[in-house]
Design a protein that fits this description.
This protein is an alpha/beta fold. The protein has one domain (22-320): Aldolase class I (TIM Barrel), CATH 3.20.20. The protein has eleven helices and twelve strands. It has helices at 12-18, 58-67, 95-106, 137-154, 168-178, 199-205, 225-237, 251-260, 271-282, 288-302, 312-320, and strands spanning 28-35, 41-43, 51-54, 72-78, 111-116, 129-131, 134-136, 158-161, 185-192, 241-245, 265-269, 306-309. The strands form two sheets. The protein has an eight-stranded parallel beta barrel with strand order 1-4-5-8-9-10-11-12, surrounded by seven helices. It has a two-stranded antiparallel sheet with strand order 6-7. Helix 3 runs parallel beside helix 4 (137-154), helix 4 (137-154) crosses helix 5 and helix 5 (168-178) packs parallel to helix 7. Ligand PBG is lined by residues 115, 117, 119, 127, 162, 198, 201-202, 207, 270-271.
Length: 321
């Protein structure tokens, strides 16, 4: 007998009914870049349609995010002042700390996640403390704890360490619990690869390393078993959600993580993934909407429970359309 697979593809009604993976606004987290100054909304040249917002201009983007049904945002701060040890990252009136307070004033409903890292705040652009050209793991943990605590004090619901130092999840959990913030959750950038896909972000966040690269702490793109060890350790240290980053080139890692572990899996579809689609669509060689939605669907199909994407707002509008 011939299997008539095409019967379930006859028209859009039946296709809609049998579709296994469906995107909803509840899948997405939208990244927001915050800068110092007043009345600023400046387009990020490497990421068309994304902006640097000063704190007083956050209400408009938060309103937009909430209007389309997105439940969470992740904040990246661009401080005016950088030094060797990233002081601006943990001061009480730092850029992210003030942005968190502002957003919490605007809405209690939106989940505010903060990226925990040092590279935007250090003058050398690395994600840790440096001695003699070496990024010092254990010393960096103290600073990451201080940053996380300052974000929790400002009102962050969730912190997301993206530095890739060993032991940071445990160190952050201990500091949060020890200071009365056991309810603040941790989404760990567990399997964060050393990737060319971060190029546009580093321009957006002014966070490119001033010497060398991040290969001694971020993962080698050839490895998947190592990703599982990273994830396992992060869960044991207290991660509530684990993340794979980038997403598109790492769908296999997302699937392995989903099959192996019982915590929610997030995937970060990074700046380079966004910029590739934008550039190709500006050249007229692909259809932006169709390609973005296909890629986001494939990330969810691979196993992502949460997708962090610069397409979050557009995707929600396309879903409603
Ligand atoms: C900070 C950080 C980076 C990204 C998120 N957090 C850059 C990096 O590690 O170089 C990349 C996000 C993106 O490319 O969209 N460590």
């Amino acid at each position: 007998m011939l299997n008539r697979h095409r019967r379930l593809r006859t028209n859009s009604a039946i296709r809609d009914l049998v579709r296994e993976t469906v995107l909803t606004p509840m899948d997405f987290i939208f990244p927001i870049f915050v800068i110092e100054g007043e009345n600023k909304k400046v387009e990020i040249s490497s990421m068309p349609g994304n902006y640097h917002y000063s704190i007083d201009r956050l209400p408009e983007i938060i309103a937009e995010v909430m209007e389309v049904g997105i439940r969470g945002v992740i904040l990246f701060g661009l401080p005016d002042f950088k030094d060797e040890i990233g002081t601006s990252a943990w001061i009480e009136d730092g850029i992210v700390q003030r942005a968190v307070k502002k957003i919490k004033e605007l809405s209690k409903d939106i989940l505010v996640i903060t990226d925990i890292c040092m590279c935007q705040y250090t003058n050398h652009g690395h994600c840790g403390i440096i001695h003699d050209g070496i990024i010092e793991n254990d010393e960096t943990l103290e600073y990451l704890g201080k940053i996380a605590l300052s974000h929790a004090r400002a009102g962050a619901d969730m912190v997301a360490p993206s530095d890739m130092m060993d032991g940071r999840v445990g160190a952050i959990r201990k500091v949060l619990d020890g200071n009365g913030y056991p309810q603040v959750s941790i989404m760990a950038y567990s399997a964060k690869y050393s990737s060319a896909f971060y190029g546009p972000f580093r321009e957006a966040a002014h966070s490119a390393p001033q010497f060398g690269d991040r290969k001694t702490y971020q993962m080698d793109p050839g490895n998947i078993r190592q990703a599982m060890r990273e994830i396992e350790d992060d869960i044991n240290e207290g991660a509530d959600i684990v993340m794979i980053k980038p997403a598109l080139s790492y769908l296999d890692v997302i699937r392995w993580a989903k099959d192996k572990f019982d915590v929610p899996v997030a995937a970060y579809s990074v700046s380079g993934e966004f910029a590739m689609i934008k550039a190709a669509s500006e050249k007229g060689v692909i259809n932006e909407r169709a390609m973005a939605m296909e890629i986001l669907t494939s990330i969810k199909r691979a196993g992502a429970d949460i997708i962090i994407t610069y397409y979050a707002i557009d995707a929600c509008k396309w879903i409603m359309d």
